[in-house]
Amino acid sequence: MSAPTPTTLTGQLVIGEQLIPGRIDFTDTITSITPQPDAPDTLIVPGFVDAHVHGGHGADTMDGPDGVRQLARFHARHGTTTLLPTTITNPWERVLHALNAVRDVMRSGMDDGPDIPGAHLEGPFISPGRLGAQPPNTVLPTSERVAQVLEGGVVRAVTIAPELPGALEAALAMGAAGIRIGVGHTRADAATVTAFLSALHAHGIRTCSTHLYNAMGGIEGRDPGVPGALLADPHAFHEVILDLLHVHPTSFLLARAAAPGRVTLVTDAMRAAGLGDGDSELGGQRVVVRGGEARLEGGSLAGSLLTMDAALRHAVQSGVPLPEASRMASAVPAASLNLNDRGTLSAGQRADVVVLSPALEVQAVYVAGVPVPGVGA
Fold first, then answer.
1. Helices and strands of the chain, counted as H and E runs
2. Phi and psi dihedrals of 80, rounded to 5?
3. 190-201 and 225-232 helices cross at what angle (nearest 10)?
4. How large is the C-alpha radius of gyration of the chain?
5. Do residues 70 and 53 lie in contact, with contact meaning Cβ atoms separated by under 8 Å?
6. Inter-residue contact 282 to 61 (CB < 8 Å)
7. 161 and 129 in contact (C-beta within 8 Å)?
8. Is residue 21 within a helix (H) or strand (E), and if so which, with residue range?
9. Which of 314, 37, 90 is nearest to 304 (CA)?
10. For each of the chain's 377 residues, which pLDDT tens digit applies?
């Protein structure tokens, strides 16, 4: 990343639970925030943190370093300043290859994209009976595979089905290394999920639902299922794909009510995001995009076409005040990943800043104080 120059912006700053007219000064970090009553109606929010994104603008995490860079640039133009490139269930060697590609990009950095503090390993430690749009290449989280994950040093979040043999031992080992443990793509019962989460929390390990409600069954009065166990937990964070296709606004508001301060917006975007209608691909499977929906040939949803700015707009349209919706897109996911240097507009934090119009359209993006080119293009 090139060296930033001192920058000053004025507008309505999202700070805590308030919109405060003011001025923000920054280089690579925020140096000061000053009230300014006559500031314009432009909105200034913390940069978005997307912990679950497979692809965008024709590229996918599984494509290698160039693919990671291409998808990252696309999402940066939509306000994402921190991003975890996310794998999909593939043969294990291909998954390791993708993780190595993410590590290459992390080491070289990007002058025109978001910060990449690690990868999200979504497959292949998932249930073969709850694949969703994942291909059928699941494997068990053996001690050897977990050791390979830890040796690579790139995984920041992992998804695992708690009912798999060795799942708890694997989750404890990865969690002890600072990896956030996500529960998803699972056919576990509520008791298994509750016991799994409790064991992890007893060791101070951060947990999360992987795209809450999706690929985990439903909630019934006599059978709370995976979503019920997750929402009843007092510590777990919750990913929500708020494209209004994967999750109904009322279900989103239920998660918000059950887990205040722990709902995180994610895109789960696939390579077709930003390209419009046509044919695409996900994990070697043909995907058809029509009318803003990406589906496998069998008709099931195949990831999303979402961007984080659109997710923010959907949250506000669902009745969530902008400051709270902003936290769901920035501060909460940062906290879930133990990234304490970003997610809020406050002195000393990274200067990851997004400028929005009053209609919540992205006008400018800064990653550690450096403007992202092509915003609005």
1. 10, 20
2. -80, 115
3. 30
4. 19
5. no
6. no
7. no
8. strand 18-26
9. 314
10. 567 899 999 999 999 999 999 999 999 999 999 999 999 999 999 999 999 999 999 999 999 999 999 999 999 999 999 999 999 999 999 999 999 999 999 999 888 999 999 999 998 999 999 998 899 999 999 999 999 999 999 999 999 999 999 999 999 999 999 999 999 999 999 999 999 999 999 999 999 999 999 999 999 999 999 999 999 999 999 999 999 999 999 999 999 999 999 999 999 999 999 998 888 888 788 888 898 888 988 888 888 999 999 999 999 999 999 999 999 999 999 999 999 999 999 999 999 999 999 999 999 999 999 999 989 65
**Assigned token pair, 73:** 């640039």
Closest CA to 184 of 159, 166, 202, 207: 159
pTM: predicted TM-score of the whole model, two decimal places = 0.97
Q: Which helix (H) or strand (E) holds 172?
A: helix 167-176
**Which two tokens mark 249?**
């606004």
Per DSSP, the three-state class of 190 is helix
* Strand residues in 123-213 grouped as ranges (E): 155-160, 180-183, 207-209
CA atoms of 336 and 342, how far apart (whole Å): 12
For residue 47 the two structure tokens come to 């940069």
Instruction: Determine the Cα–Cα distance for residues 100 and 107; give it in Å rounded to an integer.
Output: 11
Cα separation, 11 vs 233, whole angstroms: 38
255, containing H or E segment: helix 249-258
CB neighbourhood size of 218 (10 A): 12
Number of residues that make up the chain: 377
Q: Tokens in use for 5? A: 């120059």
Catalytic residue ranges: 268
